[in-house]
Amino acid sequence: MDTSEMIAMVKALTDETDEDTISAFLSMAGKKIARYGDPYRTMDEEAFLAMYPDVVIDAAAYMLNKRGWDYQVTYTENGVRREYETGDLPASVLRRVTPICGAVK
Prior knowledge:
Layout: H1 3-13, H2 19-37, H3 45-49, H4 53-65, E1 75-77, E2 80-82, H5 91-94
Antiparallel strand pairs: 1-2
């Protein structure tokens, strides 16, 4: 999946329209997923992330949607409650990535 398709999908999942902002969040999400899934850097990062474009998109959308509410644990107002799993990516996103085991290069 190319970057423009990923940007279009993140636009559809969020209220963000600025492509530079979306691109930055896709990059940050990709780096977090690569560090989680390949902690010993046994693969080329781009090749690793090519296996998980849907996870990168979901992670970027998650990060964009929670922007402005950094590390929020609970918030309730007028029956609306917000609570984030973690200050980082939630387990529900990361569990879709199969980590690679290997030795440090």
